[in-house]
Amino acid sequence: MMRKTALVFAVFAFAAPVFAEEGGGLEVANTKVGNIASLQRGARLYFNYCSGCHSIKYQSYSRLAEDLKLSPDEVLSNFAFTGAKIGDQVVSNMPSKPAVGDSPAEGAEVWFGKAPPDLSLEARAKGPDWIYTYLKSFYLDPSRPVGWNNTVFPGASMPNVLWELQGTQVAHYAPAKPGEEPAVEKLELASKGKLSAEEFDSAARDITAFLQYVGEPAALKREAVGVWAILYLAFFTFLAWLLNKEYWKDVG
Q1: Which of these ranges, 9-13, 49-53, 175-179, has the smallest mean pLDDT?
Q2: Residue 56 is inside which H or E element, if any?
Q3: Which residues contact 140 (CB under 8 A, 6 or more apart)?
Q4: Which of 166, 188, 209, 228 is deepest in the core (most CB within 10 A)?
Q5: Where are the domains of the chain?
Q6: Average pLDDT of 54-65?
Q7: 1-19 pLDDT tens trace
């Protein structure tokens, strides 16, 4: 038994630094999927800055209206920029490849090197902390075709679509050893955006929360049901205690 315990302890002791290394450098998003106001703000930012390239094809406009406490008209007027109907899935209008009759230079695969991915499951695949930190980690890089790079995802084909809000960042590099590429040591704000640093953090958090919700819309209802389940168990435990007390009161 002691050998098994020691083995389990050794496994977790070895795994701990591995997990820490995988999550190293990521900021904590502190998202609250149950905060409907945050989801509404995140949806507005997502559709204004991200939906032109990225689809969330497993989500429908009607589900957005229901979960985000918005009317169908509000959803269509604020989010549906492709002429979609309320029952349609949220699909980007950007073609991934040139359509018949288009110029060979048309299409996302030509413009960015590859088609922008669907983001329906991005939060489930990489986690909210990754998305939150990624949105904050773009910096100017003239060596890249898009003019931008990212410390969380180096070589990303995506430009910083939120630069107008965040401002522009430049990288400061750590001294590199011979034969090695210099590593980014820190990012510094070179020009201010429309939002302060705190306001941009909130905006990035709202977008992250929205994508977290999109990855698992049932989480909203599950959390609500969970609260009632806990209250029921607490009430049942109280009744059981009263019954036990009544049953044993004459036993002495």
Answers
A1: 9-13
A2: strand 56-60
A3: 147, 148, 149, 168, 169, 170, 171, 190
A4: 209
A5: 27-216, 221-252
A6: 95
A7: 434 434 333 433 433 333 3
